[in-house]
Amino acid sequence: MSQPEQTISRAKEGFGNLVEHTRSAVNHGLDTAESTFDRSADQVLHRTEQLRQGAVRLTDEARARVDRAQRGLSGIAQESGAYVAANPGKVMLGALAAGFVLGFALRGRRTSNN
Predict the structure, then answer these.
(1) Residue 2: what are its φ and ψ, rounded to 5°?
(2) Which pLDDT band, with edges at 50, 70 and 90, does 50 fall under?
(3) Which of 15, 76, 21 is nearest to 68 (CA)?
(4) Can you tell me the distance from the alpha carbon of 44 to that of 58, in angstroms, rounded to the nearest whole number?
């Protein structure tokens, strides 16, 4: 084999090695990117599930609080109705007194503004 043929042969071999090294580097980069993407996707799914569970927990807690408040208000309404039924005179006098005080306060404001 002549000198130019040997040079060309070595160049081809070197170029082949360079191509193989480049292919290997690209494949490694793709594998790394795929692995990173998979880990990131898993983290996003995990966080999403945590958020969903938190939202469900908060919804359940809010629903329970609303139910307790409704029961409490219902109890107050029943107690108030029972008090009014048991003490109609006291309730009428209290309403009359409250109306008198409110009327006096509003009339007093109107007079002082004029």
Answers:
(1) -80, 165
(2) very high
(3) 76
(4) 21
